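Appendix B, Record 12. Input sequence as logged:
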Amino acid sequence: MPSPVEVAVGTYVRACCERDPALRSELLEACLAVDVRMVTGSREICGRAALIQELTRFLADPQLLGIRVLSAVDARGSIFRYRALADMRDGTSAEAFDAGEIDATGRISLILTFAGPLAGAGNAG
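Logged structural output:
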């Protein structure tokens, strides 16, 4: 049986890949805390409504072909992490690494998003 963090992150990943705005909002309402925070290198998005609006804007970009999760979701206790790609129509892709935490209700309360590939990935010896 999946843990609460596995359920929340699985729902979030499905939502981020969902093109139908109504279904995406339903999935995000189920997995995000009302006061969720997404922190990136350049800004912070506070609140479920603001994050849903931002994802809706991002996924509406006509140049975006889709989102792919590159790694198995690593979810344990109350924390998670995974790598993903946004594939664009021009053949380019943008990589991101997300890590975060769920709250006591099993909803995602924090997402830390790092744009670009992890420096030195694959070079450890």
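Helices lie at 4-17, 21-31, 48-59.
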